[in-house]
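#help-structures

NK: newbie question. if I give both the sequence and a SMILES, will the prediction place the ligand too? trying with nicotinamide-adenine-dinucleotide
OV: yes, paste both and it writes out the complex. here, I ran yours:
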Amino acid sequence: MSGDTSTVPIDLGERSYLVHIGPGEQARLGQRCRDAGLGRRAMVVSNPAIARHFGQSILTSLGRAEIDARLVTVVPGERAKKLATVGHLCDQAIAAGLDRGSFLVALGGGVVGDVTGFAAACLYRGVALVQVPTTLVAMVDSSVGGKTGVNCALGKNLIGAFWQPSLVAADLDALTTLPARERRCGLAEVIKHGAILDLDLFERLEEALVRRPAAGDFALTPRVGLSAELARYSVERSCRLKGAVVAADEREAGQRAWLNFGHTFGHALEKVCGLGRLHHGEAVSIGMVLAARLGVRRGELAGADSERLERLLAAAGLPIQVPRGTDPAALLAAMGHDKKVRDGRLKLVLLSRLGQAFVAGDTPTAMIEQLLNEASREA
Ligand SMILES: NC(=O)c1ccc[n+]([C@@H]2O[C@H](COP(=O)([O-])OP(=O)(O)OC[C@H]3O[C@@H](n4cnc5c(N)ncnc54)[C@H](O)[C@@H]3O)[C@@H](O)[C@H]2O)c1
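OV: that's the protein plus ligand as structure tokens.
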């Protein structure tokens, strides 16, 4: 850590990179790119709303470092995550004269990061990528680890590539313009990291949000959202935890799957409720509740741990119930299209205790069906 900035190394041999976390990181981006040995021509991808806030300062920073960059935008929201957007971005990059030594910069949340990352993996069979996350979800999760991709008619993130960035610059100042609902979505992913990997992180969040919600600088207030200290701690700790998992299991042969805790239920909820109605972090929040309850039903998780998780998610202002009117049969069918299905068996990430996850491929469908039926009736 130097001054206000923390640096988290992601150790992937020749493809290792640094995640810089701190206020003012966007202004330093040009120099960071030069330090990382990136080329002199770039295309910055964003959406119009994000570009309005940060586009010019990013171009200025790159320009000061003598990097010739242009800005292009994609439509806001999940609907940008489709193959046509990737083709369009590649066309624009080629037309702008980018070559194999050029790079793409993803300036935005997980949507911009995923689609730009996949475009970087495809353009000339792969150009360098820089992630400049502007949402909490992107800072604590999607900008690190190299998963890129788009959605298709049958589900989310089913088409994509592993493509690691060369550099991640998480500017905590960007969180000041982020709507409270989006901050809460980011907190869902931080809570996930605590629940699957780090009881200490979980308990710090509990302390701030459940036990002493109005106390001290570490608190989350309904109007302002995250305190600066909680944001910084959450981003740094999450990047370290995720970075260590990715370094050990980049292609998700083992422990990386834990990061999908809540996601199989969550992706199904997003699909059945209509992409966009539930934000990703909200769907993951409900998904984690369902996965924890399933663990209790299987006899592997204490009921008290499941309740603690539900209480923390609720205290963070996240939904913990399946939305009213959701068809449980449609949810079960949507889960069948998830990437976590192998040889027709649904692999689910469950908890054995808070801070410890495991993957189970042997849950009887009838048990999942019953859980979904009951959760839908509760709504
Ligand atoms: N690749 C991965 O490992 C990974 C991990 C988690 C999530 N994801 C994906 O990420 C996506 C969700 O990402 P997200 O939650 O960041 O949503 P998002 O990218 O849709 O951004 C949410 C909203 O916030 C706005 N916004 C972004 N930054 C802002 C800022 N600083 N100020 C004001 N408004 C801002 C955006 O315009 C958008 O409307 C999903 O598609 C999910 O599948 C990917």
